[in-house]
Amino acid sequence: MCLLFFPKKEFAVILLFSLLLLRGVTLAAHAPDRFGALLVVGFVVQVALQAVLNIAVVTNTIPNTGISLPFFSSGGTSLMMLLGEMGIVLSVSRGET
User: Fold this and answer.
1) Which residue, 47, 45, 58, 55, is CA-closest to 14?
2) 53 burial level (CB within 10 Å; 0-12, 13-18, 19+)
3) pLDDT at 4
4) Which parts of 1-97 fold into alpha helices (H)?
5) What pLDDT, on the 0 to 100 scale, is given for residue 6?
6) 10-66: per-residue pLDDT in tens?
7) 64: DSSP letter
8) How far is the CA of 1 from the CAs of 10, 15, 22, in angstroms?
C-alpha cells in the first residue's frame, strides 16, 4: 500500500486534525496567561496524539491499542471528555481563564 495516496475523505480528516493542532499551538502562543497556554497545549497535543495513534493502528503500522479516533469513533465517555476539553480551549481563546 502506498502511503502517499490518500482518498479524499481520509485526507480531509488528517488535514482537519493537523489544522486543530496548528490552531491550538497558535492559540497557546497568544493565551493571556501561562496556565491557559499549558491547558491548550496539553489538550490539543492529547487529541493529536490520540488521532495519530488511531491512524497508525488503522494503517497497521503499530499493534492495536484500543484508542478511539477523536470526535468520530463511538464512545460516550471519550466524546464527552473531548467536548469538555474543547470547551476549555474555547474559554482560553476568549480570554476567560
Assistant:
1) 55
2) middle
3) 60
4) 8-29, 34-58, 76-93
5) 57
6) 788 889 999 999 999 999 999 999 999 999 999 999 999 999 998 888 888 888 878
7) -
8) 15, 20, 28
